[in-house]
C-alpha cells in the first residue's frame, strides 16, 4: 500500500499524488590532513511535491528540497507521451549513469559514487526524449541552465544521451549501458570535486577551471535472486583544464556487490535503466516481520590528476548494511575508508567515515 | 476534470485542495545599449499550496513560490463570507487592474503589462472587502507590508479600491472598471521600473526615490465569440519624485486584441473582474484533439519621464501564440519589440526579445 | 470535521494527511529606551507539510515554515510504536515545558512565555522515547544539532527528559510535571534573550557567551469546567557566563488564569502533557453560532541578571481575548505591559505592545 494514496478524477483522466521524502543523516569521521573532523546531523533530504496527470497523455511532477533550510527545486517538468516516446520539458534528470537515474532512496549506499558529484550528473532545464522496450531504453536531451537564472546571462548548454540494453533469464536480470555528454557552460566555470563517503564530509579531491568538457560512461549491472552487482566507469576530458592549455582527462567509477540476507530481489528496471523499489516480504509492522536486510560492498575510484591538474586520486572502500522496514522506510549504516594520492607536490590523505540514515518517502 | 480533485469532509462543510503550478520559461534577446544579452531558462513559477474551507463560510488559501530557489509566499489569507460580502484577511492581491486580478495562467501574454511592475500592483497584508452582482463587482482594502517584516519598523500603508461594471448580450461579454490607490511607505522607498517583454530580461526603464504616491486606473474589456480585447491605462503621481521637490507624473497601459483560432471563447468574469480559464473543446489527449489555439497582439506603453525624473518612455509591440493543450496545460510563444526614449540626456534604446513558456497548474 | 480529510489506503495500514497553518499577525508598540517602535504585519507562521503512517506502527511527519519568506523545517521525523513506547527519530520537539509541548495554535496567548525563547526550548535532531498511561507521561531524548549542519563541524549535544503526572475528578483535570536538560554546544555559543509580548518586537533582555548549561523546570496546570490555569518555572545555570568564570544562574516562568466565556472546556492531555484543541459548541458558520470566546491573564517573568551577567530582569503583564470561530480558525488579541530592570549600570526599560492574530490550521 502506497503511503500517499493516488487521487483520481471521476473521468479517470487526471490523477494526483502528494510526494515527498525525509532523510535523517548522522555522520562522524575525519581525515589525516585536517580537512574535516565532523560529528553531526542533517536532513539530507526534506522533499515536498506533487506528481499528477493533467490528462491521459500529460504527466507533471514538481518537488522541492528544504534540507538545510534552503530551497532547491528538483524535478519540475511536464511529460508528454506520444506513441512509444516520452517527451519531458522542464527541469529533470540528465540521462547519464545507472546510479544517477536510480532514486537515492533505492541506491545501495547512502551516497552515489564519487564520480557522480565530480562529473556533475545532475538535473537540467530543457527537453529530453525517451523510448524503450522490454530489453532496452534510450534517452537523449538538451539542457540550458537550472532553476537559478541570473540577470544578463547567456546560459551555456549540455547535451546528453544514454542507451541501455538487457534481458531476463530464469531469475537473473542484467543490463549494460553507455552514455555520453557534452557541456559548454559559456561564462560559467565547471569544477570537479567529491566528498568522502557521506554528505556531511568535505571535499578531499577538487579541481576546477574550465567551461567545457566531454564525458563518456559505461555501466553494467545484474540482479540474480538475492545477489546483485553493478559497475560503472566514466572518462571526462576537461578542455584546457591542464597546464599550458592542455585538456585534463579525468576518470572515475565503482564496482559493487550485494546480497539480501532475507532473500528478496533487488529489482532492475531495464527500460528505465534504474534500480527499483524492492518488495519487502515481511514488513516490520504490528505482525512483527523482520523487514528486509541487505549488505553491499563497494570499491569506488576517482582520478582528478592529469596533465598538470592536481585534483587528486581517490579510492574508497565502503560497506553498507540496509534495513528496509517497509517498502518506504529504510535505515542505512555506511562505513568507508578513503585514500587520496597524487595531490599537488605528491601530498596524500586518508579518511574514515561512518554514517547512519533513516529515511521515509511517500 | 480538475487535475487535483477536491476532498470533502463527511459533513460537506470543509473542503480541501492541493494547489500549485509550474511555469518553465525560455527566453532570448538583447537591447542596443547592452543592458542585457540573454539566453536562458527559468522556473518563472514553481508554486505549491493549499486551498480549503474550514467551514461553510470560511475559506483559506496558502501558496508559496519556489522559483529561482527562493521562497516567496503569495496568497496567505482567510476569507469570510457574510451575506453578499467576502472579507479577506492576510496576504492577498490588492484591488487594482483587470490584468493583475487575472491569474497569470490566464493572461493573454507571458507577462502582464509593463505598468503592472512599474506601478507595483501586488499583494499586501491587510484586509479587503468585496461584493458584487451579475453586472458589477467592488473591492476595497487597506494593507500594511508584505510577508517580510523587519525588526523595529513602522510599516507604511496602502489603500486601494476597484469597481467594475459590465454585461452580456448575445455572445458578447463586456466590462469597464476604475480603480484607485494611495501608498505611504513611511521609511521605505518606492521605485518604478519594468522589464522588457519576458521575465528574464532586465529593466530598460527605471526611476525611484519617493515614499508616497497616488494612482488612478481605468480598464475596459470585451469577449465576443472567439474575439477578445482589453485596454487599461493608469496615471500615477509620485510625491516629490521630480527635481526641486515637484511630483513626478507617470502613466502607462496597454491595448490588445486576440482571436481564438479554434473558436472557443475567452471567458470574462464580470463579478470578479478577471479573465477566466477557457473551456478547451478538443483537448490534446489520447483522442488526438488539437487543443485550443489563440493569438494576441498588444501595444504596451509606459512613461516614467516627467518633471526631472528621467525613468524613460517605453513602448512595446508584442505578439503571442498560445496553445492550450488542456484547461490546465498551456504553451506560449511571445515576441516583442521594445523602444525606449526620453532617458536622461535624451538617450534612447531598443530591444527584441522572444520567449517560450510551458505551464501547468493544478 | 477536520478541514484536511485523512486519506487511507485500501488495507487501512497507511494513512496520509496534508498539514499546515497560516498565522497572520499585526502588532504595534514601543519601549522607553528606543529599542523598537513598531507597527506592522507578519506571517508568524506559514507552514506546509504532511503527516502519515507508513504502516500500522510507523508514523512520519514533515512540516516546514515559510514565514518571512525564509525556510525553516520544523517537525521532520519518523516515529515507531513498540508496545507502550514511541520512539521518534529525526527533528522533533525536545521534551521540556507544558507550553512548549502545546501546539502554538492552542496556547492561551499569541506567544509562549518569555522563558521559552530565553532558555531555548526548541526542536532538535536526535532520538527521543516516550511512554505513558492515563495518569502520567514520560519522554526523554538526546539531540545533536538541527537542520543546519555546516561543514567541518563537531556538533554539540542536548539531553532532555520530562515527566508529568495528573488526574481527573468530576470536571477537573490537573497535571504536574518536572523536566531537566543538559546542553553542551561544543564550538557554538548559547545566548539568552526574549522579545516583549509579540513576535514583531525586539529583545529587551539579552545576554550570552557560554556553550554549556543546565536547566530544571517545574509545571502545574488545571482545567475545571470553563476555568483553567497554569504555572511553569525554570532555573538555568549557564556555565562560565558570569564574570570571573562564575556560572550565571537565570530563571523564569509564568502563571496564568483563564475563563471560557461561552462555557466550553480547555482540554488538558495528561499523557501527552499538553493543552489540546477545544471543541467549539457553536461554530461561527452559516448557522450563525457565536464561536468560542476565551479570556486569559498572565504574569510572566524572566531574570537574566546574575553574577556579573546583566541580561536584565523582565516582567510582563499580558491579557488575551481569543475567539475560536471553529476548532481550526481563531482570532487573538493580546495586550501586554513589560517592565525591565537590572540591566547593566542599573538601567531600566518598559514597553506597551498590542497584537492581533488570525490563524487557521489544517
Helical content band of chain A = under 10%
CATH H level, superfamily name of chain A: Porin
Runs of chain A with pLDDT <50, length 5+?
A: none
Radius of gyration of chain A: 21 Å
| Helix and strand run of chain A | EEEEEEHEEEEEEEEEEEEEEE
CATH C-level category of chain A: Mainly Beta
CA distance, first residue to last residue of chain A = 10 Å
Word description of this protein:
The structure is a homotrimer of 362-residue chains. The termini of chain A are close together. Chain A has one helix spanning 114-118; strands spanning 7-8, 15-31, 37-55, 58-65, 72-82, 85-93, 123-133, 136-143, 155-169, 172-186, 190-195, 203-210, 212-224, 227-238, 248-260, 268-269, 274-275, 292-306, 309-324, 329-341, 349-361. By secondary structure, chain A is mainly β. The first copy, chain A, is globular, with a radius of gyration of 21 Å. Chain A has a single domain (17-43, 83-361), classed as Porin (Beta Barrel). Helix content of chain A is 1%, strand content 63%. Chains in contact: A-B, A-C, B-C. The interface between A and B is large, with 46 and 41 residues.
Notable traits:
Porin, 1% helix, mainly beta, homotrimer, 362 residues, 16-stranded antiparallel barrel
Task: Describe this structure in a few short sentences.
The structure is a homotrimer of 362-residue chains. Chain A is mostly beta strands.
Amino acid at each position: 500500500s502506497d503511503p500517499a494514496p493516488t487521487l483520481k478524477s471521476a473521468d479517470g483522466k487526471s490523477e494526483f499524488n502528494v510526494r515527498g521524502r525525509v532523510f535523517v543523516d548522522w555522520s562522524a569521521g575525519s581525515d589525516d590532513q585536517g580537512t574535516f573532523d565532523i560529528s553531526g546531523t542533517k536532513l539530507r533530504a526534506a522533499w515536498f511535491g506533487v506528481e499528477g496527470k493533467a490528462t491521459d497523455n500529460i504527466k507533471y511532477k514538481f518537488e522541492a528540497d528544504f534540507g538545510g533550510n534552503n530551497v532547491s527545486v528538483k524535478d519540475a517538468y511536464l511529460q508528454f507521451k506520444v506513441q512509444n516516446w516520452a517527451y519531458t520539458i522542464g527541469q529533470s534528470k540528465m540521462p547519464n549513469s545507472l546510479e544517477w537515474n536510480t532514486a537515492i532512496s533505492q541506491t545501495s549506499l547512502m551516497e552515489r559514487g564519487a564520480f557522480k558529484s565530480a562529473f556533475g550528473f545532475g538535473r537540467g532545464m530543457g527537453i529530453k526524449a525517451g523510448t524503450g522496450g522490454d530489453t532496452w531504453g534510450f534517452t537523449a536531451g538538451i539542457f540550458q541552465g537550472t532553476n537559478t537564472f541570473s540577470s544578463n546571462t547567456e546560459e551555456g548548454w549540455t547535451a546528453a544521451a544514454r542507451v541501455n540494453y538487457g534481458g531476463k533469464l530464469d531469475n537473473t536480470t542484467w543490463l549494460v549501458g553507455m552514455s555520453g555528454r557534452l557541456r559548454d557552460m559559456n561564462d560559467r566555470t565547471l569544477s570537479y570535486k567529491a566528498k568522502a563517503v557521506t554528505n556531511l564530509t568535505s571535499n578531499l579531491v577538487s579541481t576546477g577551471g574550465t567551461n567545457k568538457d566531454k564525458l563518456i560512461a559505461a555501466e553494467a549491472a545484474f540482479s540474480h535472486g538475492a545477489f546483485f552487482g553493478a559497475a560503472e566507469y566514466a572518462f571526462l576530458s576537461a578542455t584546457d583544464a591542464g597546464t599550458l592549455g592542455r585538456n585534463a582527462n579525468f576518470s572515475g567509477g565503482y564496482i559493487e556487490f550485494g546480497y539480501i540476507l532475507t532473500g528478496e530481489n533487488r529489482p532492475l528496471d531495464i527500460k528505465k535503466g534504474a534500480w527499483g523499489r524492492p518488495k519487502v516480504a515481511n514488513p516490520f509492522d504490528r505482525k512483527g516481520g523482520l523487514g528486509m536486510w541487505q549488505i553491499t560492498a563497494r570499491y569506488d575510484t576517482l582520478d582528478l590528476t592529469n596533465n598538470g591538474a592536481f585534483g587528486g586520486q581517490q579510492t574508497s572502500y565502503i560497506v553498507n548494511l540496509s534495513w528496509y522496514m517497509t517498502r518506504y522506510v529504510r535505515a542505512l549504516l555506511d562505513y568507508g575508508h578513503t585514500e587520496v594520492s597524487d595531490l599537488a607536490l605528491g601530498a596524500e590523505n586518508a579518511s574514515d567515515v561512518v554514517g547512519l540514515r533513516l529515511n521515509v518517502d511517500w
